Amino acid sequence: MMTMLEHEAQTDESLHESSGSSDARLVEAARRGDQAAYGELVQRYEHRLARVIHRFVHDMDMAEDLAQETFLKVYERLEQFDSSRRFGPWLFRIGVNLTLDYLRRKKRRGRWSLFTDRYKDKAPDPAVADPRKALDLQQEVQKVLQMIPEKYRVVLALRDLENFSTSEIAAVLQRKEATIRWRLAEARHRFQYYWGKRHGTAMPENFTPSESAESNDEV
Amino acid sequence: MKCKTAKHQMALAVGEDLAPAEIQELQRHLQDCSNCQQTWEQHQCGFAVLQHSRTNEARPKSDSVWPMLSQRLRERDAGPQRGEFNGWIAALAVTAACVVLFVFSLEDSPLLVVRRQSGVSSGGTMVTSPDNSGQAVRPLLRRDEVRTMRSYNAAPKVDGSLRDPKLPVTE
């Protein structure tokens, strides 16, 4: 599989050190009030950031709004940025955290709406035998991903869907790389397990997601 | 290699996240363990599903968020600096509180004693001598001092007579 760094060398949207020095110069210029320099940074990362956010919110309009909010927040916090570090992981950390916060708020609102009349469940349409059949593969994958706890899902999405390397994910999530590798293995196990359950190809050896996953992942 | 370790490593190997030495060790285990071979095939299927789903990537709808973002940044820079404004309010509130505290603390301050001794009343009780010549010849007394004097005057003398309870007091 092509690694993220190889992939990004082609797409020219890398978090890698090769663009790091240039990023640092642009950040310094933006700190001095040069908005054009900040604009260059935005245009360098915006599509990739919007794609990553879209992996979590599944709505491109919302993903672009959240990307814009991320860039606004980053601009306000430029003074806090440690110039000795890479800009990309810092930007994506803020973007991913903003997105996860948005999803948590949305989930809380969803729970509250269960007690209101605003969102009543529709009665199933007898004409449609199984609504799942109408969903394409991507929607099925999203449904399975939603069954995986957030801390594993984030790692799986960044590694297997967005092709970040484990060291980059470690930098974005501020965790040790060993922790990320552990979570990645657990996330792939869980994806495999839930996918098999939904599609009748469950693992044969009584596999269940690790019971000790919550306690052992901080390697 | 135990099957538990092999399963953990299979999950990493399927996405090429395992070191070459570990891969060789895993391959040796898979040659001998049919159960793990089956698991390996299923991991490959699951990973293939994930890889297939990422080929249908959504494309951003707008060319760039920068035009809208730069406008928001300009409005933000042109508008009142909320942080500084709040800072001024806090500073003013603290200053006002300090001034009020200072004024009330003057009641017992050495400065007030000096002013009292010079005959200037500052909300306290001024006591003058009984001859009441119009000048403040005695130091000023506070209310509690006046009360002490009154109780002393009301107490009976050794010979049984009462002291004069009335002491000329001017408020």
How would you describe this protein?
The complex is a heterodimer of chains A (219) and B (171). Chain A has two domains: 117 residues, RNA polymerase sigma factor, region 2, helix turn helix motif (Rna Polymerase Sigma Factor, Chain: A, Orthogonal Bundle); 90 residues, Winged helix-like DNA-binding domain superfamily/Winged helix DNA-binding domain (Arc Repressor Mutant, subunit A), CATH 1.10.10.10. Chain A contains ten helices and no strands. In chain A, α2 crosses α3, α3 crosses α5 and α5 packs across α8. The two termini of chain A are 26 Å apart. Chain B is an all-alpha fold and 171 residues long. Chain B is 59% helix and 0% strand. Chain B is elongated. About 6% of the residues of chain B have low confidence. The chains are: A mainly alpha (219), B mainly alpha (171). Chains A and B meet through α3, α4, α6, α7 and α9 of A and α1, α3 and α4 of B.
Features:
heterodimer; A: 219 residues; mainly alpha; Rna Polymerase Sigma Factor, Chain: A; 2 domains; 66% helix; 0% strand; globular; disordered C terminus; B: mainly alpha; 59% helix
Task: List strands and helices in order, with pairings.
The complex is a heterodimer of chains A (219) and B (171).
Chain A: H1 4-11, H2 20-31, H3 35-57, H4 60-76, H5 87-113, H6 137-146, H7 150-161, H8 166-173, H9 177-199, H10 213-216
Chain B: H1 3-13, H2 20-32, H3 34-53, H4 66-78, H5 82-105, H6 110-117, H7 143-154
